[in-house]
């Protein structure tokens, strides 16, 4: 299996690039943010809970997110591999993913981390807010909080994969095509 963790701060381009990788490598895209938003739209219990955190730019508790992710993996028994987009967001989530995939006889192949400067992230998210309909994209103080949460809780997850020689940093500034090419090269030359 090819299991990719697509990593990076909010606005780095994970969703955009994941859509391309899914087509090229025939993978299943699991975006935890998208799954939470679908649950909010459907007014499920999970959605009601997640909304309280997402509206503030905070992280949903690990046990909730881990349980949800695992059940999504279970739903895709025939998958040739997965792109994890927005997960793991904490070291606890990374450890849980490792344990879970090990039970399935597989593992994370590589973490690809999109590197984008903070000012560019805020610009991109505010632009995306025009179409995304996401309240957490439209308010600069929430965006800044999401970036702060990324820096304090999520950035360290890169060290977890680096220690296993599975970490690759990708320059996330440039055209969408240029960035896709960098990702394809990193996947094909590992
Ligand atoms: O990944 P995305 O930016 O779409 O996530 C949107 C929000 O969903 C995050 O700001 C956070 O509130 C929540 N989230 C989370 N834990 C994850 C993924 C997303 O709490 N693993
Ligand atoms: Mg996304």
Number of helices: 10
Q: Overall 3D geometry?
A: globular
Number of domains: 1
CATH 2nd-level architecture: 3-Layer(aba) Sandwich
Strands side by side in the biggest sheet: 2-3-1-4-5
Q: Strand-and-helix sequence, N→C? A: EHEHHHEHEHHHHEH
- Strand content is 5-15%
- CATH topology: the name is Rossmann fold
CATH class: Alpha Beta
Q: Find the count of extended strands (DSSP E, 2+ residues).
A: 5
Rg for CA atoms: 16 Å
The structural class is alpha/beta
Q: Estimate the helix proportion, in percent.
A: 55-70%
Could you give me the name of the CATH homologous superfamily?
P-loop containing nucleotide triphosphate hydrolases
Mean pLDDT comes to 97
Bound molecules: cytidine-5'-monophosphate, magnesium ion
Distance between the termini: 14 Å
Profile the largest sheet: 5 strands, parallel
Structural summary, described in words:
The chain has ten helices and five strands. The chain has one domain (2-188): Rossmann fold, CATH 3.40.50. By secondary structure, the chain is of the alpha/beta class. The longest helix is centred in the middle third of the chain and has 15 residues, at 118-132. The radius of gyration is 16 Å and the shape is globular. The protein has a five-stranded parallel β-sheet with strand order 2-3-1-4-5, with helices on both faces. It is 58% helix and 14% strand. Helix 2 packs across helix 3 (45-54) and helix 4 (62-74) packs parallel to helix 5. The structure holds cytidine-5'-monophosphate (C5P) and magnesium ion (MG). Magnesium ion binds at residues 14-15, 31, 33, 85-86.
